[in-house]
């Protein structure tokens, strides 16, 4: 049984008293003198018993104090867990309410813009205004859909199937490259490094579509923020029972004061405000990772690039 730090000196004193009693008794007994018979049979025994009693009391007090500390720690942990659960519940209600409030107005705006199409085409200024309204209405519709997806993802059950993470990575890379080609953009300089020996990347349990979405979002962000022709690397590793998918880019990087909020909903860094996007991509990655018992992390250096890692528990046979 461990003794609390504050009681350790008293425990040492008690042990010393008991040891002193035993040593004194032995020494006096070996002297062979009759006049010390009482001392050899009474005093050392009293010292030894006293030391044992004190030591027992110290241990008992320490055990009681340890129980109180554990009870307090458990209560604090329960309170913190309840607070986090309440915060997540309030956050989900906010997203659901925001989706409800935005959905109908956005639908009405898009319908009105579509109805103005033929009239707007007769005038260059009106045509430009129409195009702007149509693009921004589409952006709002996409944002509402992502908010709905995020709110549902935090509440609804997810699939629990065997997922080959390496194949998910290859599919996401192929789709990002094909999308760039279809849009007439330069082919992104994406390289993929996945282990094959002594064993391939372990599988995980989860929802293959959600995990694909997480990897696709990471890769899409990396390509979007990297200058054309600069490298983007996708790496996989098995780190002590955790499957890690790492996407590294050559973009502008994330300032230190923004690293802590990049996984929040609607977060848009100073250097990203001129780049199209809803600010929900990394939030989706974070929630997907958490729903699979994992996490998402980010490291960045301004002027050099960013590394985002998706950590997932491996499904060991």
Name the descriptors.
317 residues; alpha+beta; Heat Shock Protein 90; five-stranded mixed sheet; two-stranded antiparallel ribbon; 8 helices; membrane
Summarize the entry for a quick read.
With 317 residues, this protein is of the alpha+beta class.
Structural class, by secondary structure, is alpha+beta
Mean pLDDT value: 77
Q: What is the number of E strands?
A: 7
Instruction: Strand order, main sheet: write it out.
Output: 2-4-5-7-6
- Biggest sheet record: 5 strands, mixed
* Range of strand content: 5-15%
Instruction: Indicate how many domains the architecture comprises.
Output: 2
Described by the principal axes of the CA atoms, the overall outline is extended
Distance between the termini: 37 Å
Radius of gyration: 33 Å
Order of helices and strands: HHHHEHEEHEEHHEE
Portion in helices: 55-70%
The DSSP helix count reads: 8
Low-pLDDT sequence parts? 34-40
